[in-house]
């Protein structure tokens, strides 16, 4: 796939994200909670929950923590109640932002998000103001680049199980599919013996905004500030260094 590397755009903002282990646990726990609350507690029928559990296992979260969080979401045990809220806005230079937050106090979180946009020269928008720039996708990162595999065989498997695109960058092969194809494609890749190093449900930009100089620095600072907020789960943006 020629052109922009969508995966590099995702990894660009993940490079600094969740440096502390405790913060990782907190954010992944919230993600599991939201997934179970929205789609039920069975990961076999809830792709969002399946992806969140895989993420939890990747950071060595104890199974007891995972199960307890799911039970909280289903109301089987007590605990804080969270809701997923998506904020949209624009940073300096017309850069789009999509921010997924899990919060037990939407007024507090909205105030924080609005403050950060204003602090770094951006603005919080209304629902629908920026999400049209992004597409929901499932992404799978395979161990190694395309040179180790029969590319035609992999492409055939991808297409037969609902996938759309394949990208090779920095020695990694990344497959993209609609989010509803997450479970069947994951099963097909596993059955075929491919080693999956990462799997995520993401929002990919359909257009990119090249920025440089002060505008780039402002967006880098805004992105970092969002990532440091405890209520923020994911930040998606469409800027790239010019």
From TrEMBL:
Signal peptide from the UniProt entry: none
Keyword check for Chloroplast: no
Principal cellular location given in the protein's record: cytoplasm
The keyword Chaperone is assigned to this record: no
A GO molecular-function annotation: DNA binding
GO cellular component: cytosol
Protein name: Probable transcriptional regulatory protein BSOLF_0698
Domain TACO1/YebC-like second and third: 82-239
Species annotation: Candidatus Carbonibacillus altaicus
GO biological process per UniProt: regulation of DNA-templated transcription
Biased composition (Basic residues): 1-15
Residue ranges of every copy of the TACO1/YebC-like N-terminal domain listed in the record: 5-76
Domain of life: Bacteria
Localisation: Cytoplasm
Entry keyword set: Cytoplasm, DNA-binding, Transcription, Transcription regulation
Sequence segments annotated as region (Disordered): 1-21
Family as reported in the entry's similarity comment: Belongs to the TACO1 family.
């Amino acid at each position: 796939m020629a052109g922009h590397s969508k995966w590099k755009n995702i990894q660009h903002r993940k490079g600094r994200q969740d440096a502390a282990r405790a913060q990782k646990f907190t954010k992944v726990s919230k993600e599991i909670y939201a997934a179970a609350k929205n789609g039920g507690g069975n990961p076999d029928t809830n792709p969002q929950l399946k992806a969140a559990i895989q993420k939890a296992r990747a950071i060595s979260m104890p199974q007891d923590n995972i199960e307890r969080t799911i039970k909280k979401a289903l109301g089987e045990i007590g605990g804080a109640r969270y809701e997923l809220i998506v904020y949209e806005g624009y940073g300096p230079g017309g850069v789009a932002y999509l921010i997924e937050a899990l919060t037990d106090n939407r007024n507090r979180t909205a105030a924080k998000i609005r403050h950060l946009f204003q602090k770094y020269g951006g603005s919080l928008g209304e629902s629908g103001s920026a999400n049209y720039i992004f597409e929901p996708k499932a992404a799978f990162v395979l161990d190694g680049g395309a040179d180790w595999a029969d590319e035609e065989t992999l492409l055939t498997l991808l297409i037969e199980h609902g996938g759309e695109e394949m990208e090779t960058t920095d020695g990694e092969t990344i497959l993209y599919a609609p989010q509803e194809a997450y479970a069947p494609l994951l099963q097909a890749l596993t059955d075929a013996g491919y080693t999956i190093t990462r799997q995520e449900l993401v929002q990919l930009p359909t257009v990119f905004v090249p920025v440089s100089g002060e505008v780039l620095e402002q967006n880098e600072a805004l992105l970092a500030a969002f990532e440091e907020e405890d209520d923020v789960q994911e930040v998606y943006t469409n800027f790239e260094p010019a």
